[in-house]
Amino acid sequence: QVQLVESGGGLVQAGGSLRLTCAASGSYINAMGWYRQAPGKQRELVATITRGGSTNYADSVKGRFTISLDNARNTAFLQMNSLKPEDTAVYYCAADQYGLDPRSGSWGQGTQVTVSS
């Protein structure tokens, strides 16, 4: 089974940056993604990336966030720039070993991102 560990969250002022890391223990990962959940809200897509390099971003983060993947180490990164208070949420990493939808696979425990105004 895939084990995922997120890190890099924290408190940052609006306009600042954070870089999240998700390390997966599985021997093969086909797709990884970042999702976020604010208090009282549903978990939502932030960005996904496949082993082949295809990416998908939520409209709300496009142009500000960049997802990347180290295929050899099964580690995903999320570079978050120009952060806004509405980005505040718990950010979760997910991975699909064989498919293209990380939400259907394994999940990490999450890392808190708080953006102050």
How would you characterize the overall build of this protein?
- There is one protein chain.
- With 117 residues, the chain is an all-beta fold.
- Helix content is 0%, strand content 51%.
- It contains no helices and eleven strands.
- A hairpin with a 4-residue loop joins strand 7 and strand 8.
- It is globular, with a radius of gyration of 13 Å.
- The chain starts with a strand and ends with a strand.
Sheet-strand content, in percent, reads over 45%
Shape: globular
Number of helices: 0
Helix-strand topology string = EEEEEEEEEEE
Radius of gyration: 13 Å
Q: Helicity level, as a percent range?
A: under 10%
Q: What is the distance, rounded to the nearest whole angstrom, between the alpha carbons of the first and last residues?
A: 40 Å
Structural class: mainly beta
Oligomer: single chain
Biggest sheet layout: 7 strands, mixed
pLDDT under 50 segments (min length 5)?
none
Total number of strands = 11
**Averaged pLDDT:** 95
List descriptors.
mainly beta, seven-stranded mixed β-sheet, 0% helix, 51% strand, four-stranded antiparallel β-sheet
Write the layout of secondary structure elements.
Layout: E1 4-7, E2 10-13, E3 18-24, E4 31-37, E5 44-50, E6 55-57, E7 65-70, E8 75-80, E9 89-96, E10 106-107, E11 111-116
Parallel strand pairs: 2-11
Antiparallel strand pairs: 1-3, 3-8, 4-5, 4-9, 5-6, 7-8, 9-10, 9-11
Short description:
The protein is mainly β.
